[in-house]
Amino acid sequence: MKKMMLSITALMLLLVTACSQESAQPKSEASPSAAPAASAEASAAPQAEKKLPRVAFVYIGVPGDGGWTYEHDQGRLMMEKELGIKSTTVENVPEGADAERVFEELAQKNDVVIGTSFGYMDPMYNVAQKYPNVKFLHATGYKTLPNMGTYMGREYQSAYLVGMAAGKLTKNNHLGYVGAYPIPEVIYTINAFTLGAQSTNPNIDVSVVWSNTWFDPATEKQAATSLLDKGVDVLAAYQDSPASIQAAAERGVWGIGNDSDMGKYAPDTYISNPKWNWGPYYTQTIKAIMDGTWKSESYLGSMKDGITTTAPFGKNVPQDVKDLVEKKKQEIIDGTFDVFQGPITDQDGKIRLEAGKKMTDEEILNTNWFVKGIVGTIPK
């Protein structure tokens, strides 16, 4: 009996000791109850610490314009998808006092405010000075601050290429161009278009009229009609709407749009047009802001980095014209050809650029004169 009691006592002691040792040892890394929880906490921690910036866009028009605002909105959507950000937009904001009020309101609620029209420059600049902790991005302007940068692209490269096509397709050597506003951005684009046309047809001239609009289809169609009445047989335009190429199509005249692929608006008479691609810029810039590496700059993209290109050719553009343009496009991308290289003479016969020289970015961005071959004036 004693032996039995001693055996039972010893057995109990062994069981207690074993349980104590098991509870004292750390759980294995492979333990199904511990590992997933620890892993989830570790992966959730960085997500909790990473704060997504609040981003707001201000548009001069609406994405439905099929041109300038449409392409900016496409870029915004790409940025949202790439970075997991949900941004906000304010549409149809006029340039001037209204824009400043909108920028002020957005600066109070957002980390990044983006303005997509040249005329927003001064209103944004005024507001940016009052909100140094907010980042501001302005399209096509030239004023900067430590918290305000600008961005633009060498769209004149694309304009030169569609000008080449225009020079090949004209029958009477008279081209027309409906300019938006007489600012450098529009002026040097018209110059590039003309130089491109002259490269394939030295006998052309380009008549220019001004609509003084960015998006006003009725006014732009009226301006286009005034050129068509003069007998131009290729018509280009710089506005955000397809009104000009639609007017051209009604007369059976070749049309060149702007900013986005406008082929669907005049499928039978459409040539092509300069096209924007803002997505990579918005994505890279907002990511830099998120990473804390962003610095104010005056960004000027090109065909090489894809910010500007040409829209697909219309269905009735001959293959030899397409091939000619594509070859020159590759030269521009490779850096073996520069649009603004001498000799260049202005419409008054003055030599603006001597042979062998190239215009600097600063000279291009401050252009206030027309090249030889343009018929029209630049309002002061």
In short:
With 380 residues, the protein is α/β, with parallel strands linked by helices. The protein has helices spanning 2-24, 35-49, 68-83, 97-107, 121-130, 155-169, 184-200, 217-228, 243-250, 279-291, 319-334, 361-365; strands spanning 55-58, 88-90, 112-115, 135-139, 148-153, 174-179, 205-210, 234-237, 254-256, 274-276, 298-301, 308-310, 344-345, 351-353, 374-375.
User: What is the count of distinct domains?
Assistant: 2
Mean pLDDT: 89
Distance between the termini: 121 Å
Element string (H = helix, E = strand): HHEHEHEHEEHEHEHEHEEHEEHEEHE
Rg, nearest Å: 31 Å
CATH architectural category of the largest domain:
3-Layer(aba) Sandwich
* pLDDT < 50 stretches: 1-49
- Provide the structure class: alpha/beta
Q: How much helix, percentage-wise, in residues?
A: 40-55%
Count the DSSP helices: 12
CATH uppermost class of the largest domain: Alpha Beta
